[in-house]
Structures are given as structure tokens and as C-alpha cells.
Amino acid sequence: MKQINGWITAPQGFVAAGVKAGIKKSGNYDVGIIASLVPAAAGAVFTQNVMASPAVVFSREVAKQDYARAIVFNAGCANACTGGQGMADAKRMAQLSEELLGAGKNQVYVCSTGVIGHLLPMDKVEQGIRESYKDLAVGGGEAATLAIQTTDTFVKKSAYEFKLNGKKAVIAGIAKGAGMIHPNMATMFSFITTDAAVQPAFLKKLVKEVADKSFNMVVVDGDTSTNDSMIVLANGLAGNPAIDSEQHPDYAIFYEALLAVSQDLAKLIARDGEGATKFLTVEVNEAENDTDAKVVAMAIAKSPLVKTAFFGQDPNWGRIVCAAGYSGASFSPDKVSVALNGQIIFENGLGTVPDLEKLKGVMSEHDITITVKLGAAEGKATVWTSDFSYDYVKINAEYHT
Amino acid sequence: MKQINGWITAPQGFVAAGVKAGIKKSGNYDVGIIASLVPAAAGAVFTQNVMASPAVVFSREVAKQDYARAIVFNAGCANACTGGQGMADAKRMAQLSEELLGAGKNQVYVCSTGVIGHLLPMDKVEQGIRESYKDLAVGGGEAATLAIQTTDTFVKKSAYEFKLNGKKAVIAGIAKGAGMIHPNMATMFSFITTDAAVQPAFLKKLVKEVADKSFNMVVVDGDTSTNDSMIVLANGLAGNPAIDSEQHPDYAIFYEALLAVSQDLAKLIARDGEGATKFLTVEVNEAENDTDAKVVAMAIAKSPLVKTAFFGQDPNWGRIVCAAGYSGASFSPDKVSVALNGQIIFENGLGTVPDLEKLKGVMSEHDITITVKLGAAEGKATVWTSDFSYDYVKINAEYHT
């Protein structure tokens, strides 16, 4: 398996487009389509927010089908809390795309992101979908990626090439998200394509598993969005015998590739956390079990006190162990240790006397790994997050409705 | 029942003192004692943080006794994550106070607040306790209150006078706390005294009940501290027949007074939230049950996106209903309504077209009540919180270890 520099159209048989439909005030790309030239096995996970967008409610129906043809999407308006009209608009986005693509009913996923509580400007959206259809091309990956962004400050993509039964296969993914990030099944948007052949029911199972190890391990602000969607399309054009179980000879390599793309994108989302000055990896080891480890890692990653301490470049282990303490996980305080990029600052329940010069160096770095060992058993988890800065407050106090 | 302007020594038979022992870098008051002249029925609740301070671990033992004589406390050092030496120091604070006050073993509660991870400077603490003992006086309430503060910007106190079986009784409380506020049993510190007679076991039960309706309903940053302690001393000098059950004729009035003091102090803590520019009351009604109502209210109150929106004076109902949606409570989106100080901005699952001038007026106010009706059943809860400002980040990025 090797990483390649490709867009969402890098796997064989995928085309994409993004256009400037006039939904975003900035005038940037805001409507797009990603389509497979042949029906693709599809798996997806969505937000568990009760106030889920009509786009999510509709796409859940699409996800019940074995195969899908495309994803149609817009940024600048989340189409959330928009009632019956919002549902009609989501359906219209799908229906128009189905017509243009010659796809069957419920074969196009719909995704919307942006401000909550406004109806989609459907004239602009429909025009955008028609233009996107005309622009669909293997070279359309970059425009499509730009058309899912909101407060993102950089493009989030990842792609790998690997062999399945001797045949070349490619997997590629894009994602968006910088705020309202605390996915509970998937993140804001993550679209992944592959030309590998995967049996549909097995793909749906894999998507859930991988979401739990990637997007569900990212937190920026602790707010779970109304529109989170992770969608994987596998069109089988690589020509490998379809992967249909953990016992399949190609299962391991495909799982590794899917997990790598998903974790790459998840980390990019944390790295682009609103106002972020630090990219923080919280590794918890030696927990009672994996669930406890995740609970502790999430408590640390979500703590505003921990996040502001890292913004202030303060190695404040008190706040880290305090968050572990209130997380709800069970462990003995006197067995806990904490290290920052390998520098131990807390051991056997007590602060250590660290090399202050070295520690100052660690705190000034952009990427910091917080390693917490609980001394209980073998449970482990890794969560990715960012710090809390003045700019976080600025972005969210000024992003008006 | 009437509110009075009194310190913690307003009930008969209580004395207090606070001194400048040199623990705080600022040189402010930092050690003190509150004592009852006679043994007082005592009830207390403490943080459930696994990393609880030795002061809390020790005080839990004191709380097993029916009666207590005093509370000894310091600010500027939390004596948390300090291992065996920390426990010895907490015990020494109690033992020295017992000696000076002529109290029996395990009759003095110990409370410490401040930075986590440093040992108490015991020479200064012991000297402070000796000086506090000499200063103990009915007039010592203000100094004692100052000696529990850390990042607090104003004094938090509340007192009421009421009649029990024809006899005058008084209840008074003080509290501290502005950050690391998400109590899970009690808040940072809340000390309450009363001269009412209450049977000890019944008092312990009442304290738990009232904590759930007051301090456990405040959140500033979602971080549960290592040192939260709520302690109630009832010395019986009012001379009323001891209140020992819900059937007691004086139960209702005493409960009302205890709840009033506790809620007053809880609200003052939210009002003094670090960097706060707003005092937010989140009222959730018509939930499936009270637990669901609390879950929704807490999700809204803890959401950094909601908190920064209020700092930006933006009536962003999208973030409010989004938080309700991911809280885990069950309800139908199309039955939800949201009002800000009575102005409805969201109804039947859709944003309304509000009077923008009026709404602008509401958002510019310091005290804002967010009322969320879920349209499910009769469950309700009220949570108090503050907004998230630049100063929140400043205070917590610069409060170095």
C-alpha cells in the first residue's frame, strides 16, 4: 500500500464536479456531484443528532440500498430545522440528480452543510446541479472538494494505491469540517471512493467499524452536528474478487487502506479545528478496556481548560489528570502517568521534575502527543483534537445567523 | 422567609476568620476557619472526580460523623495529585484545628482550592490556622469569604431568616468558584451554616437533594474539579424541635430556605464564570422526564458554540436546537420551541420571523433566559451558565502552572 497524491476521482470510474452556484456569500464553490460510472456498493453512517437535517433523513433511506450511483451536495446552507419544505428540497436534489445521471430511485446520496435554519435557495441549487452534471469529469475532484468546505482553511484529501489479488486498486477520500465537530457515527462530511470490489452488506459493516476508529475519534468543540455524513462508494472496477468477509484473502489490505484514508481525513479535520494553533493527539493506554480509554481520551480532548492550557503553551498536567478523573472511567490515581511528546511530566500519581528547557521546546511545537497511561489493564484509544484560542471565540462569536 | 444581608456567621453560634498566610502570590486572604460554638449536625457532598484531592478524601471521613465543629480551608493551592504527603498535610490541617478548637477527632472538615499538583506550604498553612483561630469572631464572615476565593471577581453569599415553630432561625451560605465548574455532587466550595435544629441523618439526605437542584445545575466550562465540596452545618441554637423527616411541620420552610441559599450561590457562581459577559439561565420544559430535561439543558449550557454565540450577541437558535438534538434526550424535532427572554425564535421545528429590533434588545442584555419546550411530557430542569469570551481564553491560557 502506498500513499498517492490524488483527488476523489483517483479510483477508476469516478467523476466529479464543483460549481459556484451563489449559495455562499463569498461566491466560492458550493454545489457539486461525485458519481460512479457504474453502480457502486455503498456504505454510510450519519449523525445521531435528533435534529438531523432532511438531507441526512433522506440519505438514510439511500443507505438501505446495496448500490448507489452518486453523491450530490452543497455548502453554505445546512438545510437543517427546515421542516417539510426542507425534506421536499432534499428529495428534489436527489431526483434531479437521478434524472441527469440516469440513475434509479434512491441511488443518490444528498448532503448539505452550512448555517442551520435556512431553506435552500432551490433555484440556485437546481442550476448548480445542472451545471455540475455538465462539468462531471475525472479532473473535477478539486472543484468538488472546494464545494463542500465552510470554515475549513485547507483542503482535506487522502488517497492510497494497493493490490488486490494482483490487481491495482485505489481508494481516495475527501472531508470537510472545522467546527461543530464531535461526530457520533461520522464527521461533518467524508466521501470516500474506491474501485475495489466489496460486497455491499460487508461494506456497510466495514464503514461503521472504520468510522469508530477514525471520525468518531475527532473532537474540536464537543458539538455534534445535524449533518454529519460519511459515505463510501466501491464500484468494483479494479476487477478483484469481491471482498465479502474478514476471511477473504484481500480483506486485510482493503481494511488497512480504508482505515488509513479515514484516519488521515479525521486528523486533517482536527488539524483544521477552528482557530487551532496546535494539533493534539491524545493517546490513552493501560485502561480497564477500550471504552474506558476512549472516555478518558475524549474527556481530555474536550476539556476547555486543557485546550486553553495548550494554547497558552502551559504543560498543565493538573488539568489533564483532572479531566481523566471526572471522565467516569475507573482507575487508581497513583498508577497514572502522563507524557507530552514522550517527556514524562506525571508519574505514579505525582508531578515529576521535568527538564524545563526540553519541556518548553515540546510546548512550542505545533503537533503534541499527550500520552496517558492508566496502569489498569490493556485498553487503549487515540483521539485527535485542537486547542482553544482567541480565534476560536472570534470565529464563533462572529459567524452570525 | 425573608432574605437578609448577612455573612456565614449570621446564624446564632457561628464564628469565622480569614487571614493572609502568604499562599496566594497576590498576598490576599488565603486561610480561614468557620466554626460552630456547639457541635452541629453536618451534611456534605463532594466531587466524584477519581483524582479527588486528599482534602476531599479526608473530609469524606468527617462526613460519616453525625456532628462536626468546623471547616478549615485554604485557597491558592488545591492539594490535589499530591500523594501520601498531600494526605498527611490534609490530616495535619484537621488535627491542628481540632487541637485549637478543643474538638474531637474527625469533627473538622478540610477544604483546599487553587492550583493542582503542588504540595501545601505547611509552615504558612499552620501559621495561618493558628492566626485564624485567634481571629475567630462573629465579625469574621467577610474575611473568611475572601479566603476561599481564587479567580472569583466578587463575593458570593446569601442569607435568609425564617420561623421554625415560632422561633427565629437563620441560614447563610458562601461559595467560591468561577472556573473548572461542572459540579458532580457539589460545586467548588459552598459552606452553609444555620442555627436550625436538624436531625443529622436527615440533614445528610437533604444536602444531597438540594445539591442536585442547585450546584449540580451550574456549568461554566464542563470541567469537574478535584476539590468540589458542599458542607452544611446546623447547630440547633434556634431551639426548634429538630427537623427529622418530610412529615415534620417545619420541613417545608427549612427546605425552602436551604434550597434558596444554595440556588442563590449556584447562580452567583455562573454569573462569575471566568470571562463571562452574560448570565444565562437555560430552562427546559415539556421533556419526557426531569432527567431528559437536565440532559438537554446541560448540553445547551456546555456547548462552546452556544456560549460563543451569546458572547457575539447572536440569537443563533440553530446551535441551541443542535445541542438539544445531540444531548441524547428523546423528543420530536417538530414539537420543539425556543424563546429568549420570552421572545419566541423557534416554534414547531422551524425558525420564526422575530421582531428583530426587540430581539437585538434581548441579546444586548446581561441576563438572558433560554426557554426550550420539547413538547414531549412534563419533565423540566433549569441550568445556569455563562458565555465564552476572549477573556475566558485569556484567563485560562495565562493561568500558568
Give me a quick take on this structure.
With 401 residues, the first copy, chain A, is α+β, with helices and mostly antiparallel strands.
Commentary on this structure:
The structure is a homodimer of 401-residue chains. Chain A is of the alpha+beta class and 401 residues long. In chain A, 33% of the residues lie in helices and 28% in strands. Chain A contains 11 helices and 16 strands. The first copy, chain A, has helices at 54-62, 83-101, 122-135, 141-146, 200-213, 251-271, 290-302, 304-311, 317-326, 356-363, 390-398; strands spanning 2-3, 14-19, 31-46, 67-77, 108-115, 156-164, 167-176, 189-194, 218-219, 229-234, 279-287, 337-340, 343-347, 350-351, 367-373, 379-386. In chain A, strands 1, 2, 3, 4, 5, 6, 7, 8 and 10 form a 9-stranded mixed beta sheet that branches. In chain A, a hairpin with a 2-residue loop joins strand 12 and strand 13 (343-347). The first copy, chain A, is globular, with a radius of gyration of 22 Å. Chains A and B meet through helix 8, helix 9, strand 14 and helix 11 of A and helix 8, helix 9, strand 14 and helix 11 of B.
Structural class of chain A: alpha+beta
**What Rg of chain A, in angstroms, do the CA atoms define?**
22 Å
Can you count the helices of chain A? 11
State the end-to-end distance of chain A. 45 Å
Q: Most extensive interface: pair and counts? A: A-B, 68 and 68 residues
**Average pLDDT of chain A:** 90
Largest sheet of chain A: 9 strands, mixed
Give unreliable regions of chain A as ranges. Answer: none
User: Proportion of β residues of chain A?
Assistant: 25-35%
Oligomeric state of the chains present here: homodimer
Q: Give the tally of β-strands of chain A.
A: 16
SSE pattern of chain A = EEEHEHEHHEEEHEEHEHHHEEEHEEH
What spatial form of chain A do the alpha-carbon principal axes imply?
A: globular
